[in-house]
Amino acid sequence: MPTQRLSMRRIRKVLRLRHVQGLTERAIAHTLGVSKGVVHGYLRRARLAGLSWPLPEGMDDEGLELLLFPAPKAASQSPRRSVPDWSYVEKELRRRGVTRVLLWEEYRAANPDGFGYTWFCTTFEAWKGRARPTCARRTWAARRCLSISPSLSQPSYAARWASIQVSTCLSMSAEFFSPSAINL
User: Fold this and answer.
1) pLDDT tens sequence across 166-176
2) pLDDT confidence of residue 104
3) I need a labelling partner for 60 at 20 to 30 A (CA). Which of 11, 24, 151, 173 fits?
4) Measured CA angle at 69 (ends 67, 73), to 5 deg
5) For residue 143, what is the enclosing H or E element?
6) How far apart are CA 44 and CA 42, in angstroms?
7) How many angstroms separate the CA atoms of 34 and 28, rounded?
8) Do the Cβ atoms of 159 and 176 come closer than 8 Å?
């Protein structure tokens, strides 16, 4: 759950302590009883909004809040972002030393206001699932593809060894517990 914003009175105090008294972020955080990250975040927002102390004449709390916390743009208002060529991304990932981070950095260099890394990875995985679906599951009838033959070379008092041969010419040894082999 996101934390509550500081009141506008306390945000004004952050700006005043920084610009008038010249306190460090750590000292401001200690004075107000908040974390250094919170102080840094408000000072960063003020710097991006072009605010310093004293605030412009007639600046009320609502005006300050609108400058510090602008309403996010709706997706329809933002310009259309370009989508990477996923077949190129897949082809490049097969090359040695190429990672998703490198490809995403190339994408962001070409599209500075492009999508973030998380979107890049999740959308690529979704595309990969649509473009190259995993093989269909095969259900096998056990009587057709599995044959078990007991090996008589193993001692019968502990367990029996069996050789399992699947119809794909795969063979392996496995130890099966035989309840009839135990003498109580």
Assistant:
1) 444 455 555 55
2) 92
3) 24
4) 100
5) helix 142-145
6) 5
7) 8
8) yes
**pLDDT at 177 > cutoff 90:** no
Interatomic CA distance for residues 140 and 48, integer angstroms = 63
| Eight-class DSSP state of 181 | G
Length of the chain: 184
Mean pLDDT, residues 88-113: 91
Residue with tokens 């972002």: 81
Which residues lie across from 174 on neighbouring strands? 162
Instruction: Enter the pTM of the model.
Output: 0.42
The position carrying tokens 């973030």 is: 116
What are the pLDDT digits (tens) for 33-88?
999 999 999 899 888 888 878 887 888 888 888 888 877 665 444 567 788 888 89
What are residue 175's phi and psi, to 5 degrees? -100, 125
Which is nearest to 85 in space by CA: 109, 105, 103? 103
pLDDT of residue 81: 77
Structure tokens at 160: 């029996």
Task: Give the C-alpha separation, 11 to 61, whole Å.
Answer: 10
Contact residues for 9 (Cβ-Cβ < 8 A; gap 6+): 61
Q: Nearest-5° angle of CA 18, CA 22, CA 25?
A: 55
